[in-house]
Amino acid sequence: MAKERIDILFRQALTIYKQHPQLADRYVEHARRLSMRYKVRIPRRWRLLVCRKCKGLMVPGFTSYARIRQHREPHLAITCLKCGWVKRIPIKKGGQAKP
Question: Which of 13, 62, 64, 75 would bridge with 58, disulfide CB 3.0–4.6 Å?
Answer without folding.
Answer: 64
